[in-house]
Specification:
14 strands, alpha/beta, single chain, isomerase, EC 5.1.3.2, UDP-galactose 4-epimerase, domain 1, binds uridine-5'-diphosphate-4-deoxy-4-fluoro-alpha-D-galactose, 331 residues, Rossmann fold
Length: 331
């Protein structure tokens, strides 16, 4: 068992619940703070403690930090639907930026030494160059990306002023599910391609819309860097070790595999795995979709011992499908 506890906000959600598994498997004690608005209590591994609260509930959060001996925060809680952030920006600035401010303040007040933040490739907006490095211009094109970028900026200033260091991890397209079937993407109303394709493959929806066929890519459909959620969770555990080993340093790193697949390549992979053909509906572009978004992942590879273990599109699809079937059985 490691010395100290990690507080995971949003640990009942998709990525957070996988980080909880990775931390527990690595020997950490874990306490989850989640308001269960989009997360599920059953998604939190029983080895972790669950506190149902908002992260801006200072009394509860600070009591938890002190009582549980929290040495680090992994912060996943927040709102994540890009189009919703456009129609309701204040929700995103409240749930992502303002709530993060309160959480960071609690961490500083309680002497928590390390902070890992769930950031996003949406901080880059439409990239000028692909693969995108961390030094590329940060020009978010929606309030979601801006709300996350503002939190990165707060962390930078706070780490300069207080004895806390941080790692901001900018995720590319997270997909798949725990290979052992312990967690997966469960929130209803999916908008993410691989989740939607898994729903189509299990009969939950009739077809998959292909948003845009005239992008500047090999087959005309959008290209993204899909990363398996279990690899992403492992990067957080390694980032924590780095923050502990080098308390004077903070880091910002892309999390991706450095290669992209088009929408049609993803759907072809689903067909290969299921031995069936999903119906494709060719439609117009969604607002704000870049042609291609692929990580330059040289920094994370140079900084952490982290190496992808599930970098295979069919594996990602297979794990996503297995979880989708499990959800279907649950009803
Ligand atoms: N797509 C379809 N049909 C669908 C859903 C998606 O064709 O039903 C396409 C999109 O147009 C895009 C690709 O599949 O080309 C991936 O779309 P997702 O919605 O799965 O993911 P995004 O790339 O739009 O979003 C991801 C993250 C966001 C982040 C965003 C921008 O999930 O959190 O990248 O960096 F904000």
């Amino acid at each position: 068992m490691r010395d100290g506890t990690v507080l995971v906000t949003g640990g009942a959600g998709y990525i957070g619940s996988h980080a909880v598994l990775a931390l527990l498997d690595a020997g950490w004690k874990v306490v989850v703070v989640d308001n269960l608005v989009t997360g599920f209590d059953w998604a939190v591994d029983k080895r972790a403690k669950l506190v149902v609260a908002n992260i801006e509930d200072e009394a509860t959060v600070r009591r938890t930090m002190r009582d549980e001996g929290v040495i680090a925060v992994m912060h996943f809680a927040g709102s994540v639907v890009v189009p919703e952030s456009v129609s309701d920006p204040l929700k995103y600035y409240r749930n992502n930026t303002v709530a993060s401010r309160a959480l960071i303040e609690s961490a500083v007040a309680c002497g928590v030494k390390h902070f890992i933040f769930s950031s996003t490739a949406a901080t880059y907006g439409i990239p000028e160059q692909v693969p995108v490095s961390e030094e590329s211009p940060k020009q978010p094109i929606n309030p979601y990306g801006m709300s996350k970028l503002m939190t990165e900026i707060m962390l930078k200033d706070v780490a300069a002023a207080h004895p806390i260091n941080y790692c901001a991890l900018r995720y590319f397209n997270v997909a798949g599910a725990d290979p052992q079937g312990r967690s997966g993407q469960s929130t209803a109303g999916a908008t993410h391609l691989i989740k939607i394709a898994a729903e189509a493959a299990t009969g939950k929806r009739a077809a998959v819309s292909v948003f845009g066929t005239d992008f500047a890519t090999a087959d005309g459909t959008g290209v993204r860097d899909y990363i398996h959620v279990t690899d992403l969770a492992a990067a957080h555990v390694d980032a924590l070790d780095l923050l502990i080993a080098r308390p004077e340093e903070s880091h910002t790193m892309n999390c991706g595999y450095g290669r992209g697949f088009s929408v049609l390549q993803v759907l072809d992979a689903v067909d290969r795995v299921t031995n069936r053909t999903i119906e494709r509906k060719l439609e117009g572009r969604r607002a704000g979709d870049p042609d291609a978004l692929v990580a330059d992942n040289s920094r994370i590879l140079a900084t952490l011992p982290w190496r992808p273990k599930h970098d295979d599109l069919e594996t990602i699809v297979k794990d996503a499908l297995a979880w989708e079937r499990k959800l279907a059985e649950r009803g």
